[in-house]
Design a protein that fits this description.
The structure holds two protein chains of two kinds. Helix content of chain A is 77%, strand content 0%. Chain A is mostly helical. Chain A folds into two domains: 43 residues, no CATH class; 205 residues, Orthogonal Bundle (MetI-like fold), CATH 1.10.3720.10. Chain A is globular. Chain B is built from 13 helices and no strands. The longest helix of chain B has 33 residues. The mean pLDDT of chain B is 86. Classes of the chains: A mainly alpha, B mainly alpha. Chains A and B meet through helix 1, helix 3, helix 5, helix 6 and helix 7 of A and helix 1, helix 3, helix 4, helix 5 and helix 6 of B.
């Protein structure tokens, strides 16, 4: 394949990917675009009215709240588990590596069927609550955390440091907290940003577990699907820009963490 | 040493609570007391559910094959270029993956729906005959969007990892370009590509948001059928939802296990 040909092929693909977003951006500012090739008027009224809509704002806040709760839970439960398995329990670690495909192998719909039975009665009666939603989100955070933290751990001589620590009377916990944790912090940060993108975009659990009782951003978007094209365009555009922002943050974080990788 | 293994316990406890326990009740609940296989027999005898399985299977197989093919070509093209460009492609794929589901379907509606921007343009040019977004072709299109995105993220590292010297050696022997990829390049990484394919397939089989946003409960998709039984006003038949879930799990996990078996055999030989 000639270089010229592959170049135009990549250019074509990039264009195909970018075109829809440009059209949607245009549709978000177009106020009168019903009968012409290009809009007659351009204005920011729809943008201000959507962004100023209390229902939209509340849904963004709910999404952020549930995502950060789930992230905090994941950090508290998953990071210690990954580090402990890496250092003390290699057999379990191999199972963790397989667990990365869990969100693919067990679809959310299937788990929801189980939740409705298990959590609709005591002892854990949390069906329909944001609590259940946050708990259901924790396993979703596992793959990104595992891949990134594990990558960072593999570049470190954790065992040697623990041995050295024992020589000077430092507990393993102290070495892990004061030496290892700062070294893997950039990887954890990167995983958090990537997971935030996943959780903000989650629809299945949100729709089937809480639905309209706790309207997240995705549920709000879904409810607006029959609205006018310009309203949905603004919502999609806002969401897309948020994703871009998160991505920029992720790139910045991985560039910072990448300096001390091989 | 051993006592520090306890740090994994909270996470394992959560997995037990939020994955293992619910999943095991789905398995147990799929068998009807007294007539264990009745729900399964009902599904196998129901044209409605069999149709959902056949449509979902066809859609998943088609978009997995197309998605993989569309992801492999740019990955090959990107190999000859700078690392930065590959990173950019990975980033775009990642954004695409996060954009999947409700937002992507809304975007397709704005562009290609009955009053869409592109629809109007194409209709004027007389090119829109027979296309309906809210149909099979719409499902293929919207599924392809996320299959290509995720496919790119998974395939790019695989193609990039192929050692450059075999490509150069093949080139010296006059086996460059397309012939290299057909006879050497892709066969070298077929195992990785196979596992990517199984993940894409599983992902498509388990997708709910895309089909549900596009067509609501009229989508003949297994996950939508299950969701309907679960979220409907009346939870009429929980046993049926359980059995449908198990059938879906079997169809979706079998290729993953098969691919793992195949690749494990290959590495030993």
């Amino acid at each position: 394949m000639s270089r010229h040909l592959s170049g135009s092929f990549l250019f074509l693909l990039a264009g195909l990917f970018a075109l829809p977003f440009l059209a949607i951006a245009l549709s978000a500012v177009a106020t009168d675009w019903s009968d012409a090739l290009l809009p007659r008027h351009i204005g920011l009224d729809v943008i201000t009215s959507v962004l100023g809509d209390p229902r939209f704002q509340a849904s963004v806040l709910r999404s952020l709240a549930i995502s950060f709760t789930a992230l905090a839970l994941s950090l508290a439960l998953i990071v210690p588990a990954i580090v402990a398995a890496h250092v003390y329990w290699p057999a379990l670690d191999r199972w963790f590596a397989r667990l990365v495909v869990l969100p693919y192998a067990v679809p959310a719909v299937v788990l929801v069927v189980g939740y409705l039975r298990v959590f609709s009665q005591p002892p854990v009666q949390i069906n329909g609550t944001p609590t259940l939603l946050a708990l259901a989100y924790v396993p979703l955070c596992f793959p990104m955390l595992y891949v990134n933290v594990k990558n960072a751990l593999q570049g470190l001589a954790v065992r040697d440091w623990l041995d050295a620590g024992r020589l000077v009377g430092a507990t393993d916990e102290r070495v892990l907290l004061c030496v290892v944790l700062p070294m893997i912090a950039p990887a954890i940060g990167l995983a958090c940003v990537l997971n935030l993108g996943i959780l903000m975009g989650e629809f299945v659990y949100a729709n089937l577990l809480v639905g309209g009782r706790f309207e997240t951003l995705q549920i709000y978007m879904f409810a607006q699907r029959s609205e006018s094209g310009s309203v949905t365009s603004v919502i999609i555009l806002a969401y897309f820009l948020t994703l871009l922002l998160l991505t920029a943050l992720a790139i910045w974080l991985s560039a910072r963490g990448g300096t001390d990788k091989r | 040493m051993l006592s520090r293994r306890l740090y994994v316990l909270p996470f394992l406890a959560l997995l037990a609570l939020i994955v293992v326990w619910p999943l095991s009740t789905v398995v147990v609940g799929s068998f009807k007391p007294g007539a264990p296989l009745e729900h399964y027999a009902y599904i196998l005898g129901s044209r409605f559910y069999l149709k959902a399985f056949s449509v979902t299977l066809k859609l998943s197989l088609l978009t997995t094959a197309l998605g993989l093919a569309i992801a492999v070509l740019p990955a090959i093209a990107l190999r000859a270029r700078s690392r930065r460009l590959s990173d950019l492609a990975l980033t775009i794929g990642n954004i695409g993956a996060n954009f999947a589901g409700v937002p992507s379907v809304l975007a397709f509606m704005i562009l290609l729906g009955s009053n869409g921007i592109v629809t109007k343009l194409l209709r004027e040019a007389g090119l829109m005959e027979g296309f309906d977004l809210y149909s099979w072709s719409g499902l293929v299109l919207t599924y392809l969007f996320f299959q290509v995105s995720i496919g790119t993220v998974l395939v790019l590292p695989v193609i990039t990892a192929i050692p450059r010297d075999i490509e150069e050696a093949a080139d010296l022997l006059g086996q460059g370009g397309a012939r290299f990829w057909a006879s050497v390049g892709l066969p070298v990484v077929w195992r990785q590509l196979l596992s990517v394919a199984t993940l894409l397939f599983a992902n498509a089989m388990g997708t709910y948001a895309t089909a549900y946003t596009l067509m609501g409960t009229s989508a003949q998709i297994v996950t939508v059928r299950i969701g309907e039984l679960v979220a409907g006003d009346v939870f009429a038949d929980p046993g049926l939802a359980n059995a449908l879930s198990i059938c879906l799990l079997v169809v979706l996990i079998a290729p993953i296990l098969l691919a793992q078996l195949l690749t494990a055999k290959g590495t030993k030989a």
